[in-house]
Amino acid sequence: MDTTNLKEITTSVYTFSDLxxxxxxxxxxxxxxxxxxxxxxxxxxxxRPRRFGKSLTISTLEAVFRGRRELFDGLYLGSADYDWQVxxxxxxxxTQCVMDTMPQLQKSLCYQLEEIAKSYGLKLTDDDPALLxxxxxxALYDKTDTEVVLLIDEYDKPVFEHLDNAKDAELYRNFLSSxxxxxxxxxxxxxxxxxxxxxxxxxxSVFSKLNHLTDITMRPEFACMFGYxxxxxxxxxxxxxxxxxxxxxxxxxxxxxxxxxxxxxxxxKLWYDGFRFSENAETVYNPISIGKFFLNxxxxxxxxxxxxxxxxxxxxxxxxxLTVPDIDGTLLSESYLDTFDIAELAGTQVEDExxxxxxxxxxxLTVDQLAATLPERxxxxxxxxxxxxxxxxxxxxxxYTAPRRPTKYLxxxxxxxESGRTEDMVDVWKxxxxxxPYDIQIKAxxxxxxxxxxxxxxxxxxxxTEVVTNKGRIDAVLDAGKHLYILGFKLQxxxxxxxxxxxxxxxxxxxxxxxxxxxxxxxxxxxNFCYAPEERTITDWKETFLP
Length: 547
What we know:
Blueprint: H1 16-21, H2 30-37, E1 43-47, H3 54-65, E2 89-93, H4 102-119, H5 129-144, E3 148-153, H6 157-160, H7 166-186, E4 190-197, H8 205-208, E5 214-215, H9 230-236, H10 238-247, H11 261-272, H12 287-295, H13 311-319, H14 324-327, E6 331-333, H15 334-338, H16 352-361, E7 366-372, E8 378-382, H17 386-401, H18 407-419, H19 422-434, H20 445-458, E9 462-469, E10 472-479, E11 483-491, H21 495-504, H22 509-518, E12 521-529, E13 538-546
Parallel strand pairs: 1-4, 1-5, 2-3, 3-4, 11-12
Antiparallel strand pairs: 6-8, 7-8, 9-10, 10-11, 12-13
Helix pairs in contact: 4-5, 5-7, 13-17, 17-20, 18-19
């Protein structure tokens, strides 16, 4: 692709002044910042998943409060009725701290605070970050006779980096609690406070002591402050879209062959759109995925997901035997989404809802719709898009089947299913299960069911589990184009029993007419799994064809 005349896209620069001064592509979000600035002595908090533009927003706010109006020419804020008064700014970035140990974190934080003091001609030192923080706020106010601005980026990172050890996470939470309580005492001399992070941590002083801290995380008017809306994508990346079409883009999901502009937008939407942060809000695209898509010669890949594999989360899911069907479409109450308590991750058993809440906070689940309002609001959750759904399914399957990787089985399975070769399809499953280490397998029908479901999803096939009918629940329904499979599973029983259940409860009845209209062949397939040490795979299966 010829990028000579295209505005530069960067996915590695998070300083607002650098983006503007180097004429990089910037999607104007300053209308949202203007809303924040209009609040007298505003104190705000917002969580978003990683790589969603939080650091750039903090940097933009810093440029505003330093009075750098020239950077905002042509942007919404540049022509708004803002006074551009200069304020002393304390910008703390926890991503720049070393936090392997508590002494390292304390030293890194003190260094940041000392450097801020030095930039204002102040010489301040202290071994206690909280005391130094307090000194700095008051020294800046005394020197400038102007209220101070606090900007804290990734406020929860020290805790989040240690979630795999509840004791350590609690230690870091207690430290942060003592650090953030300084803000409460400084409220009279603060002009503006803004904290960003990934999670809202319960029992942290920043929430219990700061009575006026406004959480805008799920406020509808700020739902699109981070990420790109459809209109923003098409307006700001128009030239890049045109260049991509001219260069030639091959479809992955929507259709075969080269895509025109409309088809390209559809494909991009399937891959990277879908994040929603309030129940009625417009969905947004992940910025890192959009940027890397164009920078990598318009190649559809899992860019955002691969910037940080959620190993700890996947291990929690495995520990609770949660599967992809358990996750996608789950319901969560507002009380669960509001705060996240690390203490509840300790111990051998964690509530499913707490794990799912953490998936939402970290971006692997998003709000689909409001499902109920009484006794409290209840939200239906979903995977945001193909990138997240596919990648998460792959990681979860790898956790359940480690150290095996499922990739080599996918093409064989897809080919067999689409061709109606049920025996070959079952052979792929048998081969896969036979190779699993015995010590990671779980004696539960759901375990085997979930692996089959996930492998089929990774193939791109349409598969549903626990499908409700008027007579019961079908274990799984697999739609492979010209062939539709009604699957019944049993553990340490017989394939005949699985097949008999499909027949006795007339599970295929609801599919007969639609399948006939689409010209599909319906396969009823009974499968029996065995957990015995010498087998631990599919021991027998049977199939019948339905008219």
